[in-house]
Amino acid sequence: MQNTHSRWIKIFIAVILVCSGCATIANLDFNKLYGHENTENRAAASVTQATLESPATSFYQTKVAPVIEGRCVVCHACYDAPCQLKMSSPEGIERGANKEMVYHGSRILAATPNRLFMDALGAKQWRYRGFYPVLNEREQSPRANTQSSVLAKMLMLKKQHPLPDEKLLDERFDVSIDRSQQCPTIAEFDGYAKSQAFGGMPYALPELTDAEHNILMSWIDSGAYMPARAPLTDAQAQAVDALEQFLNGDSLKMQLSARYIYEHLFSSHLYFSEITEPDTQPTFFNLVRSKTPSGQAIDVIPSRRPFDDPGVARVYYRLQPVMSTIVNKTHQPYAIHQELTDKWQKWFVDADYRVTELPSYKPKVAANPLTAFTQLPENSRYRFMLERAQNTIMGYIKGPVCRGQVALNVINDRFWVYFVKPEVVDSPKISDFYESQKNNLRLPAEHESTALAVTWLEYASRQGDYMRARNKFMATALEDGQHFTEKDIWAGDGDNDNATLTVFRHFDNATVIKGLVGKPPKTAWVIDYALLERIHYLLVAGFDVYGNYGHQLMTRLYMDFLRMEGESNFLAFLPPDTRHKELASWYQHAGPELTEFVEGKINPFDQPSGIQFTTKDHKKELYSIFAEHVKDVQPNRYRLQDSELGDNSKALLGQLANIKGTSASILPELSMIMVLPTDSDEPEIFTLVRNSAHFNVNSLFSEDANRDYANDDVTLVHGLLGSYPDVFWRVKETDLAKLVAKAQQIKSEQDYQAFLDLFAVRRTAKDFWQFSDKLNQTFMKHSPIEGGLLDYNRLENR
Q1: SS percent in the chain: helix, strand, coil, step 5
Q2: Are strands 269-272 and 501-506 parallel, antiparallel or unpaired?
Q3: Cis bond before residue 202 (omega within 30° of 0)
């Protein structure tokens, strides 16, 4: 037995040696033919190129960039880019690829961050970090440029082996979310091509046209020149300077305020709305920490988290232009204008408070905003987050993660969000209460990126202590035994449409939109200051996508507390008996420990409601009461009635929203629908969202076992919703009746496939790219600020 075991080990080692030997031989051949790889070869070649007005620049901007963006970036952006190859910027293409997986929830130790524009600068530094080139870094000649380029080889492989002329892809293609990735270097490419003949790029999508292929090959052949960016306009430079001057004031009050603003906006895309031309995409900026002040080149401080010790005596907050193509899955547009900065002045500068010293950057202080910013008025902090509440909540999926089931399988598929009005926290009693609860409100990020999940029990105990203290405080602090009514819900100060939100979860990604969209949901949250702050510091500021399993697991477990807290706040507006019934329906099949925790620790569920109900359906009535309270700030976007289709067509489409149960469960989570109007050349876009019902969302694993398929339903909206489409439908307006009838008849997978045969633009469609271009163009035309390229990594093969 032992001899057999030893023999297999020797065979395994031999295979490894043979494989590595083949790669070594291939490298030697490339060295002999085209010289050794050296980043200086490409750098030296690019120095000789002309200025921004050169033909090479024009060729790249007008011919090459549109192909890269429309055919490559739609799969290669953010952390989930295959092989970490981010093609959304010249710097990302120059950086190249890496075999290491970023999304790796079982790693014992935290990984080294590899964030573009932050952790390394220039190809040479990236090579030290294990990234290998996809462009030629050997002798700069036309032949070497194509033969020594992984990108060129991938394009040629696709040309040699285009998609089979079949409706569905066969077993040679893996389009699953967590598919294993093949990431060959140029020395390994021949072996890759033999084993993965259909692995050329774009992978599992139609090949480029001859014209597109020739554009990219000509560009690579001539050295793959990528020009420098145009400088900012005078107006942009002045706006940047003004905001940096404001953020970098010398007073302790301003330094603390700027730190707070930065830690909440570091993942956003700032733009100056007052100097942006109408119906155009603005120039976006990232707010970064720099070692250098305004007027000098930005020297980014590459900390894991925005609140980590910067390692310098003085931090400067700077605006760095966003240097990547805007993709929807990471895009958080944030308008800067005079009205907003006047509010910042009021909240952070003119407000009556004193800062005696700046808080420490030690994790146990900095990871808890209720400790770090105790000298900033709670009302100012809360006002700042509420002003752009959509952006605050949106950060938990578009911020540092792009996608992440770990953070998202803790929420229901669709729920509404309301906020406690700021006046409630504008009280010395509230400030004293939060000060007394600092220890109970500690967050997992205090353990940094390598943590042990067992410490979760400590947080569970503290959360229970906090909720009991909070309930006691609210019962005694309110005058005359008064309890919360709808008047304590924020109504947007009469003009802010961030007052209500709808959150859609799409398995491992999510969408946050303004307003109460769709039918009344099963659950809703009411968020107060402390909850909103902790959501941000748990899932945005404090989350490290490169963290170990303990860090990611504790984040997931802690989010259970925050979800239950938000739900509890909503339930508190209902009569006590109704609360218990709703709780039971929200946590079916839940273990006794959870039920005991929710009822006994999160909320005693015994205080009376401040609302007088007149019907038997208390939750439905509460939704109506809240709706009336916030009606003046409900946005009009996504309403079906705003479509320019005929009334009969809108009525037909509206019937899709009635699909539920098994029929709904067969549909994917995001179906994007292009309707070709009878009287117009401009298509209309709609999105059908499947809402997956669950018995409860408290299970870490085997989520499928908690699915309540009989209660699945859908939400139909006018416009594009979501970043990761699962399927595209295309229909002429005259065929809407047929589409709706066929959709309503879907009862099985076979029915669904037959439906797709009639109306889908599958990933194998011959005109897929033309459809894709039209869809993205329509999206950007109607949403030039919020819009961005969609991501095709979730397109189904059904």
Answers
A1: 45, 10, 40
A2: unpaired
A3: yes
Helix (H) or strand (E) holding 136: none
What's the Cα-to-Cα distance from 649 to each of 659, 673, 674, 742, rounded to whole Å?
17, 14, 13, 15
Quote the CA–CA distance of 67 and 63 in Å, as a whole number. Answer: 7
Residue 612 Cα to chain centre, angstroms: 40
Please tell me the predicted confidence (pLDDT) of residue 746: 97
- Please answer whether residues 126 and 142 qualify as being in contact, where contact means their C-beta atoms are separated by less than 8 angstroms: no
pLDDT at 257: 97
Q: CA-CA distances (angstroms) from residue 33 to 20, 29, 190, 194, 540?
A: 20, 6, 16, 22, 49
> 642-782 maps to which CATH number?
3.30.1050
Contacts of 635 (CB under 8 A, 6+ apart): 497, 514, 515
The pLDDT tens digits of the residues spanning 753-782 come to 999 999 999 999 999 999 999 999 999 999
Cβ-contact 74, 85 below 8 angstroms:
no
Which DSSP letter does residue 69 get? I
What's the confidence (pLDDT) of residue 13?
45
**Maximum separation of any 2 CA atoms in the chain, in Å:** 88
pLDDT of residue 694: 87
Contact, 670 vs 655, CB < 8 A? no
Query: Structural domain boundaries of the chain?
Result: 31-221, 399-522+541-635, 642-782
pLDDT by residue (tens digit) across 303-350? 999 999 999 999 999 999 999 999 999 999 999 999 999 999 999 999
Pairing type for strands 414-419 and 285-290 reads: unpaired
Two structure tokens written together for 774: 């039209």
Task: Please state whether beta strands 727-732 and 670-676 pair in parallel, antiparallel, or not at all (unpaired).
Answer: parallel
The predicted model scores a pTM of 0.92
Q: In what order do the strands lie in the sheet with 727-732?
A: 713-718, 684-691, 670-676, 727-732
Rounded-to-integer distance, Cα 362 and Cα 359, Å: 9
Beta strand pairing status for 414-419 and 333-336? unpaired
Confidence at residue 430, expressed as pLDDT on a 0 to 100 scale: 77
With a cut of 70, which residues of the chain have pLDDT below it? 1-28, 44-52, 105, 399-410, 453-456, 475, 477-482, 591-605, 699-702
